[in-house]
């Protein structure tokens, strides 16, 4: 077990009871239905505030080898890999006005990445970028995306401010027909979709939103005309303004300290307190960075991924709160096995979790001076029920006179009025409401794009997946030839460092595409048998997490408490973990393409010499 001798004893029964009580306060019948999409009369919440002039251009009618959907890191990594493999005939279709994806849209004040920049920002060595800090600012990550675009000569290949409306397979032409809201018609041999899971703005269904007469916007569409300043802060136009922030997730906790620097008053409407770990940001050691040998970034990414997958490593290169937690789990599990392994391993994990969460709660108490506010800011659930967060500013902000934590007792804001918000029976008059309420993470990759996807014989993906996700590796689908998903989480994988997932799946898609083009493959489609085999492998490796999710406080990781509504292993990630997953897809490319796909050829199949 852990070295608990120096730590106060934990009353685990009392804690468990408290966790369940806090969960029960937050369970609600409407689950995910409590949120709604920023469309129709709410479309302004998702409109692009960053383009000065809407683009005017003629519709395009063209043929290309690859249509890449999305210009965030997923699309950029795909396009870069295509270039590396000598495939130059492709189009990138992107809704925003530039590359960047998440980092194009999210420009709120205080924005930084919560994964170490040396592993999060891909292609650092290839492009020649040195992040200036351990946790890079959003503006720096956005600039890196643009640099990737220039380095790989992608700007000429991109159609910005363009939304895909339909992707349909034309069996006769053996092409995908990609249609857009600008009247484009692109005939592509291959399609690779990479819209990212966090791109669909989500609003809370609080009664009265439309009544409010002040300013309102979503955190991912920041209104700098109203606030002044930029993503580094300096929101000087907020002098004299009373601001409400709804949401204390990853976005909210970064925004709130910057608002507090300038607003007359900031009201933080909290439904569930987040886990706030130490951030420990620092400038990059330039000598250290310059001394890294070629290939260092991949090694570092792999090291992080291995540790958080529970695979022991000789050293912990990143050494952050993510790896700290998993090393503690590993140490405790090792001790458990050494001592004969009595009792279930879940109990060992739970003990580590309780200890970690006690530390998190102690930090809240140590930082926040007002005891009642500190009590309200303590999270009472298991460490991984929600994505753990990192900040050395958020908790401290409650020691300022111009910041109030409005504890809604787990119920959230109950009403929005003409001039403010109501929570826990009290009205708070404000001038502006900022929704830091996140994104629809439950939506499947193609749904995030909001277009219709039609495969062979007119089969839509909705129809194909009506009883659950069916795919090979979460990236290829029977009935959808030459179609690849980059960022495929359902039946695929996810690493806490999401760009790592994107990198491995982009490499997978581009290797296959480049090989097909070289071999004159017109269409390659994975078989039903391959999907069945993957399903069986998924089932064999599935960890039943239903008990863990059931006890968690509601959030997007457990379908807002209604986790039983979602298929269990079918839509889940591969239970063997991301390291094993990467090996599987690599081996598949080397050994199993012939077995698992049917292929047609442009010309007679070349005969091996
Ligand atoms: P989240 O979904 O994480 O947070 C939404 C917040 O809104 C929660 O605190 C939620 O409370 C709250 N909320 C929702 N409805 C109400 C209501 N009716 N009343 C009061 N509060 C409400 O969104 P974020 O934008 O913060 O983050 C989205 C994703 O983006 C996360 O996965 C995050 O990890 C990621 N992200 C990553 C960053 C990075 O650095 N890598 C930076 C920013 C975001 P409750 O918890 O009770 O549901």
- CATH class of the domain at 61-200 and 441-541 and 576-601, named Alpha Beta
Provide the structure class. Answer: alpha/beta
- Bulk shape: globular
CATH fold name of the domain at 61-200 and 441-541 and 576-601, please?
Answer: FAD/NAD(P)-binding domain
Largest sheet: 8 strands, mixed
How many individual β-strands?
A: 22
Structural overview:
The protein is of the alpha/beta class and 609 residues long. It has a domain at 61-200 and 441-541 and 576-601: FAD/NAD(P)-binding domain. 33% of the residues lie in helices and 16% in strands. It contains 20 helices and 22 strands. Strands 2, 3, 4, 5, 6, 7, 19 and 20 form an eight-stranded mixed beta sheet that branches. A five-stranded parallel beta sheet has the order 9-18-10-11-14, covered by helices on one side. Helix 16 (498-519) runs parallel beside helix 19 (577-591). The radius of gyration is 25 Å and the shape is globular. Bound molecules: NADPH dihydro-nicotinamide-adenine-dinucleotide phosphate. Residues 113-115, 198, 204, 206, 219, 246-252, 269, 271-272, 387, 412-413, 436-439, 555-556 line the site of NADPH dihydro-nicotinamide-adenine-dinucleotide phosphate (NDP).
Outline:
The protein has 609 residues and is α/β, with parallel strands linked by helices. It has 20 helices and 22 strands.
């Amino acid at each position: 077990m852990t070295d608990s001798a120096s730590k106060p004893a934990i009353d685990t029964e009392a804690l468990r009871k408290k966790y369940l009580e806090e969960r029960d306060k937050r369970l609600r019948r409407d689950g995910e239905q409590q949120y709604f999409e920023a469309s129709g009369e709410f479309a302004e919440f998702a409109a692009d505030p960053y383009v000065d002039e809407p683009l005017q251009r003629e519709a395009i009618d063209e043929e290309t080898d690859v249509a890449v959907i999305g210009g965030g890191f997923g699309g950029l990594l795909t396009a870069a890999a295509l270039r590396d493999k000598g495939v130059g005939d492709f189009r990138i279709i992107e809704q925003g006005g530039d590359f960047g994806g998440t980092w194009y849209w999210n420009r709120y004040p205080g924005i930084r990445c919560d994964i170490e920049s040396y592993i999060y920002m891909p292609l650092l060595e290839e492009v020649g970028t040195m992040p200036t800090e351990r946790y890079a600012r959003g503006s720096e990550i956005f600039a890196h995306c643009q640099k990737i675009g220039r380095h790989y000569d992608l700007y000429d290949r991109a159609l910005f401010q363009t939304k895909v409306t339909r992707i349909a397979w034309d069996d006769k032409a053996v092409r995908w027909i990609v249609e857009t809201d600008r009247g484009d018609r692109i005939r592509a041999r291959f399609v690779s979709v990479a819209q990212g899971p966090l791109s669909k703005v989500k609003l809370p269904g609080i009664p009265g939103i439309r009544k409010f007469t002040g300013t309102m916007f979503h955190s991912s569409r920041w209104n700098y005309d109203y606030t002044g300043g930029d993503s580094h802060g300096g929101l000087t136009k907020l002098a004299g303004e009373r601001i409400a922030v709804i949401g204390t997730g990853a976005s909210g906790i970064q925004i709130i300290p910057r608002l507090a620097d300038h607003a007359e008053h900031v009201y933080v409407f909290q439904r569930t307190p987040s886990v706030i770990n130490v951030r420990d940001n620092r400038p990059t050691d330039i000598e250290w960075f310059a001394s890294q040998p070629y290939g260092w970034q991949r090694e570092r990414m792999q090291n992080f991924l291995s540790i958080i997958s529970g695979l022991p490593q000789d050293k912990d290169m990143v050494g952050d709160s993510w790896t700290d937690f998993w090393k503690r789990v590993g140490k405790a599990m090792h001790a458990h096995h050494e001592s004969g392994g009595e009792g279930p391993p879940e109990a060992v994990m739970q003990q580590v979790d309780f200890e970690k969460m006690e530390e998190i709660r102690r930090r809240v108490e140590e930082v926040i001076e007002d005891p009642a506010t500190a009590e309200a800011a303590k999270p009472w659930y298991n460490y991984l029920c929600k994505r753990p967060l990192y900040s050395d500013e958020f908790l401290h902000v409650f020691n300022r006179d111009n910041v109030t934590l409005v504890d809604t007792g787990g119920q959230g804001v109950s009403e929005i009025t003409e001039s403010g918000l109501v929570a826990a029976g009290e009205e708070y008059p404000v001038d502006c409401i900022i929704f830091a309420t996140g994104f629809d993470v439950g939506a499947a990759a193609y749904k995030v794009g909001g277009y219709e996807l039609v495969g062979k014989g007119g089969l839509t993906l909705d129809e194909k997946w009506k009883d659950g996700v069916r795919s090979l590796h979460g990236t290829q689908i029977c009935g959808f030839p030459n179609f690849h998903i980059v960022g495929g989480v359902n039946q695929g994988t996810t690493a806490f460092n999401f760009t790592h997932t994107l990198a491995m799946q982009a490499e997978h898609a581009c290797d296959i595409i480049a090989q097909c083009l070289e071999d004159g493959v017109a269409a390659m489609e994975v078989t039903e048998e391959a999907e069945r085999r993957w399903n069986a492998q998924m089932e064999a490796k599935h960890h039943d997490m239903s008990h863990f999710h059931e006890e968690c406080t509601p959030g997007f990781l457990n379908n807002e408490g209604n986790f039983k509504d979602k298929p269990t292993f079918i839509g889940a990630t591969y239970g063997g973990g991301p390291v094993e997953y990467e090996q599987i897809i690599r081996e598949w490319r080397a050994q199993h393409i012939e077995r698992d796909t049917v292929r047609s050829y442009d010309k007679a199949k070349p005969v091996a010499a």
